[in-house]
Write a structure and sequence with these properties.
The protein has 24 helices and 24 strands. Strands 2, 3, 4, 5, 10, 18 and 19 form a seven-stranded mixed sheet that branches. The relative contact order is 0.12.
Length: 646
């Protein structure tokens, strides 16, 4: 009986085993076969080469170079990883930040992938490790590509920089793009490196690798190569860029030069600038503190983020508005006693005693403030707003960079929306007067001022300003223009445009910038400007020498040349530079001399005058302008307004 029971029990067990085997081999065969195949084969990404960035003449501004990295494959390590790293540090310098970064990369990668622990090894370090390599299974020297900006600080705000891919960067990617970044360590953080990231990155390839049960690679089954990123051909002339940056020296400010007929940005300067190479592998704390805490704010992209009053550079557009809207004729003259009274407020002219009889031509050539006080009063704030808006004032231009500010083109509607109480929302007639000379609530970016000047030079034809001229396919070399046609046209009478242009030529031949352009071999049109940084008390006269350096007036200048057929339009601001004719116009003269004639300035030592640290940077944010308006309650309450001195 016992034997029979034991036999039945054994038969039942065998039956259960057979049934289980049948279940696995027949009914669940496809599922488990797929799982086994997934365990056997792993996909290893192949990072594509990043596209190059070049200037309009083919000068390389961002490139890739090969360097050695020390890499560890965790699945090949026999022993404690920390002990291994300590032994490696006897041969190769491994800092705490390298260990920290390696730990993070290891957590995000698969065991059979090699992870860099030190990048850009020196030849001596490579040699020392190679001799001792037999002691470190799973550790190898690999050649990888790294990003480099060969010109250093030159055009840094244009090019931007790449940095290590963070979780926040991954979160911003689309699901399709996220798959394309497997194995990628870097992504564009600023400049065109960021705005053209999809073009520059390329398409990630992959390898199918057979691995053992322990995760060790056995062999490569197939390979799908990566497609390198496209190249960017910028509109920037890097030699012109260098000349302007050198001309600024240690001064702060911005310059934008545009080709009016195409919208190509020929120079895009923000001073001071920075070295983008510092950011590629992660900037060290000391360098970051120096850049981030500097009073000069080198990380601020001034042409699109700095907002300034345009000063008297606004006057040619005011004159054009007067002609187009029928508020003035070219011959009509006003008598300038040196001020304009409105209510209880006196708006002073820049010239004590006034300019006497002034017509439109003379008002631009000699920059008569009183003429434009009266004109602003006759036009009204809303008429000025509606006329200036198509020129791009107070509007986003759509340039191919991130973080562009809108600026402020005031109107009665803007004020109603900007303030809460009814008293604050009211537009006072006296607030209109200062707008005529580019002061008051007016606040524009240097890019907007350059864009408007280019539109005027191009007779009202609007071309979208852009930094990338062409995207070049890295494989086929096919080129695609980024801005192939005009955006729109402003309906202007050519005779009115010619009147304003003639007056701007007069500025350079007999007016406020005549001294700077006295020996020019071409005819240019221009307009000087100064912009107040701080207000003055009633009856108080402005004295630059008694004012802290960072609270002095900004110097501005706009120009285009040759006047009869403009090839370049420029707007510049020198922060706290004083008179536009003295600080800004000479820099524009150097830029025009090079671009039109090929002349380079004679090299000289840069101005190394120290800047007082106790003062603040004089970029006027819109919030500050609003706060001033609230505190002062509008100019019709009495007092004086200092005119622009050009």
């Amino acid at each position: 009986m016992r034997l029979s029971v034991a036999g039945v029990f054994v038969l039942i067990c065998f039956f259960l085993l057979i049934m289980r085997l049948l279940w696995l081999q027949v009914f669940k065969h496809e599922d488990y076969a797929a799982q086994a195949e997934d365990n056997r084969i792993s996909i290893v990404p192949i990072t594509p080469n990043r596209g190059l960035i070049l200037d309009r003449n083919g000068v390389v501004l961002a490139q890739n170079y090969s360097a050695y990295t020390l890499e560890i494959t965790p699945s090949k390590i026999n022993g404690d990883l920390e002990t291994l790293i300590n032994e490696l540090s006897m041969l190769v310098n491994i800092e705490p930040k390298d260990r920290k970064h390696f730990k993070k990369l290891t957590e995000d990668s698969k065991k059979f992938e090699s992870v860099p622990i030190r990048t850009r090894l020196t030849d001596a370090e490579v040699a020392r490790f190679t001799v001792q390599r037999y002691r470190f299974p799973g550790v190898e020297i690999q050649a990888r590509l790294f990003r480099q900006y060969p010109l250093g600080e030159v055009a840094s705000h244009v090019i931007g920089y790449i940095g290590r891919l963070s979780q926040s960067d991954v979160d911003k990617l689309d699901s399709d793009d996220e798959a394309n970044y497997y194995g990628t360590d870097y992504i564009g953080k600023e400049g065109v490196e960021k705005s053209y990231e999809k073009e520059l990155h390329g398409t990630t390839g992959y390898e199918e690798v057979e691995v053992s049960a322990g995760g060790r690679p056995v062999r490569t089954l197939s390979r799908n190569p990566a497609i390198p990123g496209n190249n960017l051909i910028l509109s920037i002339d890097i030699e012109l860029q260098k000349i302007v940056e050198d001309a600024f020296g240690q001064r702060r400010g911005a310059l934008v030069a545009i080709e009016p007929s195409t919208g190509d940005i020929l120079a895009y300067v923000s001073k001071p600038n920075f070295d983008p190479n510092l950011f590629v592998e992660g900037i060290d704390q000391q360098s970051w503190d120096e850049l981030n805490n500097s009073l000069d704010r080198p990380l601020v992209n001034r042409p699109i983020s700095g907002s300034y009053p345009p000063g008297s550079t606004y006057k040619p557009f005011m004159a054009l508005a007067a002609l187009e809207l029928g508020k003035r004729t070219p011959e009509a003259a006003i008598m300038d006693p040196g001020y304009f009274n409105f209510g209880n407020h006196r708006f002073r002219d820049d010239k004590e005693g006034g300019h006497g009889s002034v017509n439109m031509y003379q008002s631009i050539v000699h920059s008569c403030d009183t003429y434009y006080y009266m004109l602003a009063n006759d036009l009204g704030v809303d008429a000025m707003h509606d006329f200036m808006k198509p020129f791009g004032f107070g509007q986003v231009t759509g340039i191919d960079l991130a973080h562009e500010k809108k600026g402020l083109l005031p109107s009665t509607e803007w004020k109603r929306n900007a303030y809460k109480t009814r008293a604050q929302q009211k537009w006072y007639p006296g607030e209109t007067i200062s707008l005529g000379i580019g002061q008051g609530y007016n606040s524009f970016t240097p890019l907007q001022l350059a864009h408007a000047t280019a539109i005027l030079a191009n007779n009202g034809v609007v071309m979208k300003p852009h930094l990338v001229k062409v995207v070049e396919d890295s494989v086929t070399r096919q080129r695609t223009q980024t801005v192939p046609k005009e955006s729109y046209r402003i309906n202007l009478k050519q005779e009115n445009i010619d009147i304003v242009k003639k007056a701007m030529v007069g500025v350079t031949t007999e007016g406020t910038s005549a001294a700077s352009f006295a020996k020019a071999e071409y005819v240019s049109a221009g307009k000087t400007g100064t912009a107040q940084v701080i207000g003055m008390k009633q009856n108080e006269k402005y004295n630059a020498q008694s004012v802290a350096e960072r609270k002095r007036d900004h110097a501005l200048y706009t120009a285009f040349a040759p006047a009869e057929n403009p090839r370049i339009a420029i707007a510049i601001i020198v922060e706290n530079g004083g008179f536009g004719a003295v600080a800004a116009a000479p820099i524009v003269k150097q830029a025009l001399d090079y671009y039109l004639l090929g002349k380079k300035p004679i090299s000289k030592d840069k101005d190394n005058t120290p800047v007082p640290k106790e003062d603040t940077v004089a970029i006027r944010p819109i919030a500050e302008i609003k706060a001033e308006a609230e505190a002062e309650g509008g100019p019709e309450e009495g007092g004086e307004t200092r005119g622009n001195t050009d």
